[in-house]
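User: Reviewer 2 asked us to show a designed sequence for the structure in our supplementary figure. I'm pasting the C-alpha cells here. Could you produce the per-position amino acids so we can include them in the response letter?
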C-alpha cells in the first residue's frame, strides 16, 4: 500500500472500533453530499475527538465558527447537557439550511442555534448580547481570518475555556513564512498569536488520515 493508503486504512480501523458513524451522522453526510456541499467536514474520529474534548471540558456552552452541513456541530452538541447551548456561525445560507435539517433530525435543535452571515459580522452582534462565556470554541471557517476569529474567541471566553483551531498544517505549507496564500498567512497569524498572547497556552498537532496531511491547534484561556 502507498503511504496515503496506509493512513486511510488506519483511520478506517480507528473509526470502526472507536467512532463509528450512526444513522444520524451518516444521514448528515449523505444530505450534505446530495446538496453539493464541499467534502471538508471533520472525519468521524475527529468528530469524536471534539465530543470528548467538550465532555472533558464539562462544556455547557459552545461556539462553533463554520457550520457547513452540521456534522461537527452534531458531535459537539452531543456532549452538552440538556440545558446547554451551542451557537454555530455559517456564512452560506445554503449550507446553513442543510445543517439546520441535519441538526433537527439528530434531535439537537433545542440546543443548537445556527446564525447565518459572515462570522466577523455575527461575532460583534453575539458579543453585544453579553452571553455567558463559552466553555469551548471550535474555529473551522475561512482560514484567512483565523487570527481574527481567535481574537473574538478570547473576548467571548473566560479562564479555563478551550479553543480548537482546525486545519492548521495546510499540507505543510504553514512553515512558509513567505507564502502569499491567505489561508497560510491567516493560519500562521493565529498560531503566532497563540504562542505570544499572555492569556493563551497552546500547542498544535500534525495529523494524517483520510483527509491527508493536516492538523489542529489547541489553546487554553488563562487568567
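Assistant: Here is a per-position design you can include in the supplement:
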Amino acid at each position: 500500500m502507498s503511504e496515503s493508503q496506509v493512513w486511510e486504512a488506519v483511520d478506517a480501523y480507528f473509526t470502526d472500533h472507536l467512532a463509528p458513524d450512526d444513522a444520524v451522522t451518516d444521514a448528515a453526510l449523505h444530505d450534505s453530499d446530495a446538496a453539493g456541499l464541499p467534502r471538508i467536514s471533520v472525519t468521524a474520529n475527529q468528530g469524536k475527538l471534539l465530543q470528548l474534548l467538550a465532555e472533558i471540558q464539562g462544556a455547557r456552552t459552545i461556539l462553533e465558527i463554520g457550520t457547513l452541513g452540521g456534522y461537527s456541530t452534531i458531535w459537539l452538541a452531543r456532549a452538552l447537557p440538556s440545558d446547554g447551548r451551542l451557537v454555530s456561525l455559517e456564512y452560506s445560507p445554503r449550507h446553513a439550511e442543510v445543517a439546520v435539517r441535519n441538526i433537527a433530525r439528530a434531535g439537537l435543535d433545542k440546543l443548537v442555534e445556527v446564525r447565518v452571515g459572515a462570522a466577523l459580522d455575527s461575532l460583534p452582534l453575539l458579543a453585544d448580547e453579553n452571553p455567558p462565556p463559552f466553555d469551548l470554541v471550535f474555529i473551522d471557517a475561512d482560514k484567512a481570518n483565523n487570527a481574527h476569529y481567535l481574537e473574538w474567541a478570547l473576548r467571548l471566553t473566560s479562564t479555563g475555556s478551550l479553543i480548537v483551531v482546525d486545519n492548521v498544517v495546510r499540507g505543510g505549507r504553514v512553515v512558509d513564512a513567505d507564502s502569499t496564500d491567505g489561508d497560510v498567512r491567516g493560519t500562521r497569524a493565529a498560531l503566532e498569536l497563540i504562542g505570544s498572547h499572555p492569556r493563551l497556552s497552546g500547542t498544535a498537532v500534525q495529523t494524517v488520515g483520510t483527509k491527508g496531511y493536516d492538523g489542529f491547534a489547541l489553546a487554553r484561556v488563562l487568567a
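For the response letter, you might also mention the following. The longest helix spans residues 3-18. Helices lie at 3-18, 23-34, 44-57, 71-77, 93-105, 119-128, 146-155, 182-196.
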